[in-house]
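User: Could you go from structure to sequence for me? I need the amino acid at each position, not a summary. Structure tokens:
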């Protein structure tokens, strides 16, 4: 069988163009002898060193004495790598640099002791337990990430993208679009050691981030060139951090500029630009902007190659950071950053995007979300013993979710609306540290304040169905959730926290006891959370043993959970207990290996609860006061369903392995990378009474003629008392099931090989056990002719919830970089083969209700964002899946 000529021709032409694009740079840098090079000795502030130095070139034997601030000229007979030894202020440092052309300027950054002033590069915590840090040199050109450094976080132990479950991370309102009969998770970005997406916190230079990745995890919301390093703390961490029962993702941007530089990056899917500028001797300015265009490239250039269920978002982001040392010991930093994602799935939008006339089978959903954070940081550091950091920020978030349901027979618009969620978050933090005994005992303490104002409202409600008004009014009268959505809902929450922590270190022993106090105003709850970390390092072995544990708390996140109209505003804070033990071994200069075991226990988890009621709720809904005044006057107090409770609990336990080879320093050639592996099990128990259909029907019949006047809980079982003087006991017969986002095995391997200053090759391989689901064993036919004029089939699920897994996830990505170095900067063309062997990774199951259960129904929904591919058709209808090719060029000057 032959492949479609158009598809084959296009693929061949793209490959030819890409290899010509890269190989055209292989011969333009040949140099004639001699090669004149200028050496410059610089400190961390990109200033000339203030002392005399002696420089030795090992390969040529040249020895040069350099006076303070002098320019050093050296001649070489040929290009290649040379070793420079610099003796400066009784300190010997070695650099390995490649000489490539005449006129080249090579900067050697030597360590120079500077007294006074403010510490420019932030102080690092020394705790290694449950912590993984990667710097920009290791993550900037991560294969398969489309030039996005933050995706390296997804290759670390215990970290994996979350599968979207439910509608939105901010407003689920008990709606489950997966069809699964049992759910115990939330939608979000990723999971850390079994902690759900809502249990984690994300920070950019200490300021809260609404979401770290654009829709579907296509890319992070930060410019690649501004990221200095990423720091993932997946388990036991400092008491200074609150508002999380899972882990932390800290993203740090650059906080100094050595020289002015500008970077432009253009590739298949996006364009971005960044700028780094010095503001005199004491200030700097960083800025970045990015815009994606996947729909333009994919839907226009090769629409027949796009999978039918592909879900690409149009996104953009921006960052601005400026810092200035006002005077000695006082530094002020201002930051503004934000993001926007648009993912339009309405038929109208599909028609606008698809002018070729090809059918578009994407589901009719649309999403538009954005956030903006403005923050200011003031650091006071009069010396090396005391430091105070004050941060104040405001984060504004908005999410518009569009739903449009059409009749499968007539394509008539049955119902459509736009769900608008907003959140204004004010975050204030002050942290002080004092060196009581220098390098031995340090005290750190601080206060946090978080204010959240969350709103939700439905807008742009549409329908062309004649029965819409009756259905709409029935929903308003029968569903408090729907009524709250239509009328608008809002809640305000205040959280205050304080912490104190001692850091003791002496002769390899490090002990960090700490305590945190949190107050949550909606539940009028105050909780104390002790934490502690201890480690011992055997210097001669370069081995560190670590252990720690603590209690962590987080207030309910979603408005649907704490809503006064349709939720439970009395929900308490969720709680987790973390315990971890590990050993870290350094091998040679560049290798390290870490093995760590952990167990996390989760308590008081917020879960959907159909049985929780407030028997004496005030009947003060504004719509009822107007439309059903007589009913309100007759029933001023009534039992209100609360929909949520703190009944959930669970655990996560396992071990992690992390083997790392650090990147060569100072631009040397060589290889680097890491291997990570996690083996774990995560389970949850919603502790909900499970009723049979008969029990459920009998209970509904009895409750239709009586009123609930009292409710209490014994353990996790409900005891209800009714006005007919009868009791009802709803036993907790729920079981512990696998967490919706549980993955037994997670393996990642990342490598990069800097062949020379001109070529670099990298690869990334990922493998993971897929998430558990409840298996469909058959279907039941339901006659729906009165509504749609056709027969529908409902799936029959197994009663063994989350006992069946989708096929495993795996993917290989390759990246090739070519560098052309100039005295003004470099040109870096590159090519990526994303999902090299065209693997289609299942993300969920889809049951077609117009067909009965069969080997082809249910079918898989595939993850086309994290594992994209190109589809090519054979003439007989069979399909071939090829890697997604991303090529581009980065220019820095």
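Assistant: Here is the amino acid at each position, in order:
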């Amino acid at each position: 069988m032959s492949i479609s000529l158009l598809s084959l021709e296009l693929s061949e032409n793209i490959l030819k163009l890409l290899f010509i694009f890269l190989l055209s740079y292989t011969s333009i840098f040949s140099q004639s002898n001699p090669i004149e090079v200028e050496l410059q000795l610089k400190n961390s502030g990109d200033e000339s060193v203030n002392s005399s130095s002696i420089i030795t070139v090992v390969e040529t034997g040249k020895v040069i004495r350099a006076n303070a601030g002098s320019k050093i000229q050296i001649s070489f007979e040929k290009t290649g790598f040379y070793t420079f030894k610099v003796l400066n202020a009784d300190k010997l440092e070695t650099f390995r640099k490649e000489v490539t052309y005449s006129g080249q300027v090579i900067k050697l950054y030597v360590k120079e002791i500077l007294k006074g002033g403010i510490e420019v590069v932030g102080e690092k915590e020394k705790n290694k337990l449950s912590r993984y840090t990667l710097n920009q040199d290791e993550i900037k050109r991560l294969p398969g990430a489309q030039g996005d450094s933050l995706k390296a976080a997804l290759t670390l132990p215990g970290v994996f993208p979350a599968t979207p479950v439910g509608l939105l991370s901010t407003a689920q309102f008990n709606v489950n679009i997966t069809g699964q009969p049992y759910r115990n998770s939330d939608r979000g970005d990723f999971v850390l050691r079994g902690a759900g997406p809502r249990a984690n916190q994300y920070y950019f230079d200490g300021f809260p981030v609404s979401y770290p990745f654009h829709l579907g995890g296509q890319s992070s919301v930060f410019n690649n060139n501004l990221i200095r390093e990423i720091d993932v703390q997946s388990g036991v961490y400092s008491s200074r951090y609150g508002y999380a029962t899972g882990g932390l993702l800290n993203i740090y941007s650059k906080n100094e500029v050595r020289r002015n530089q500008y970077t432009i990056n253009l590739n298949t899917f996006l364009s971005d630009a960044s700028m780094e500028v010095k503001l005199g001797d004491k200030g700097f300015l960083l800025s970045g902007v990015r815009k994606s265009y996947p729909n333009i490239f994919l839907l226009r250039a090769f629409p027949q190659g796009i999978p039918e269920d592909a879900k690409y978002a149009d996104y953009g982001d921006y960052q601005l950071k400026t810092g200035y040392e006002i005077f000695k010991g006082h530094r002020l930093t201002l930051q503004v950053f934000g993001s926007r994602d648009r993912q339009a799935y309405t038929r109208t939008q599909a028609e606008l995007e698809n002018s070729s006339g090809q059918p578009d089978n994407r589901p009719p959903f649309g999403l538009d979300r954005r956030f903006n954070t403005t923050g200011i940081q003031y650091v006071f550091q009069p010396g090396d013993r005391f430091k105070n950091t004050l941060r104040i920020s405001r984060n504004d978030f908005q999410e518009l979710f569009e739903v449009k349901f059409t009749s499968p027979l007539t394509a008539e618009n049955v119902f459509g609306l736009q769900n608008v969620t907003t959140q204004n978050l004010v975050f204030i933090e002050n942290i002080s540290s004092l060196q009581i005994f220098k390098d031995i005992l340090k005290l750190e303490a601080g206060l946090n304040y978080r204010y959240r104002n969350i709103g939700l409202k439905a807008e742009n409600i549409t329908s062309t169905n004649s029965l819409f008004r009756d259905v709409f009014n029935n929903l308003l009268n029968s569903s408090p959730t729907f009524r709250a959505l239509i009328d608008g809902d809002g809640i305000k929450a205040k959280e205050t926290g304080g912490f104190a922590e001692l850091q003791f270190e002496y002769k390899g022993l490090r002990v960090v006891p700490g305590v945190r106090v949190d107050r949550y105003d909606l539940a009028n709850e105050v909780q104390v959370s002790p934490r502690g970390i201890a480690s011992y390092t055997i210097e001669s072995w370069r081995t560190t043993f670590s252990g720690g544990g603590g209690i962590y708390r987080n207030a309910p996140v979603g408005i649907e959970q704490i809503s006064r109209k349709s939720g439970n505003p009395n929900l308490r804070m969720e709680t987790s207990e973390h315990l971890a033990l590990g050993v870290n071994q350094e091998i040679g200069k560049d290798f390290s290996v870490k093995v760590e075991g952990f167990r996390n226990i989760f308590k008081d988890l917020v879960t959907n609860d159909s049985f929780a009621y407030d028997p004496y709720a005030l009947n003060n809904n504004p719509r009822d006061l107007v439309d059903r005044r007589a009913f309100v006057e007759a029933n001023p107090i009534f039992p209100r369903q609360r929909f949520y409770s703190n009944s959930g609990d669970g655990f996560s336990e396992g071990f992690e392995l992390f083997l790392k080879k650090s990147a060569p320093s100072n631009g040397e050639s060589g290889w680097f990378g890491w291997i990570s592996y996690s083996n774990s099990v995560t389970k949850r128990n919603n502790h909900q009474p499970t009723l049979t259909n008969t029990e459920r029907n009998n209970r509904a019949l009895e409750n239709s003629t009586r009123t609930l006047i009292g409710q209490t809980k014994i353990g996790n079982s409900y005891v209800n008392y009714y006005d007919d003087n009868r009791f009802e006991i709803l036993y907790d017969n729920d079981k512990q099931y696998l967490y919706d986002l549980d993955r037994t095995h997670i393996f990642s391997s990342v490598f990069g090989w800097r062949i020379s200053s001109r070529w670099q090759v990298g690869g990334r391989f990922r493998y993971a056990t897929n998430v558990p689901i409840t298996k469909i064993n058959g279907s039941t036919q339901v006659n729906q002719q009165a509504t749609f004029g056709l027969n529908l089939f409902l799936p029959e699920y197994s009663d063994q919830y989350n006992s069946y897994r989708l096929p495993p996830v795996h993917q290989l990505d390759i990246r090739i970089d070519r560098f052309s170095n100039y005295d003004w900067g470099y040109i870096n063309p590159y090519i990526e083969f994303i999902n090299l062997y065209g693997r289609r990774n299942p993300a969920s199951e889809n049951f077609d209700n117009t067909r009965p259960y069969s080997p082809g129904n249910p079918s898989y929904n595939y993850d086309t964002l994290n594992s994209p591919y190109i589809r090519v058709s054979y003439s007989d209808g069979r399909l071939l899946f090829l890697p997604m090719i991303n090529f581009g060029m980065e220019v820095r000057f």
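One structural detail worth keeping in mind: The chain has a mean pLDDT of 82.
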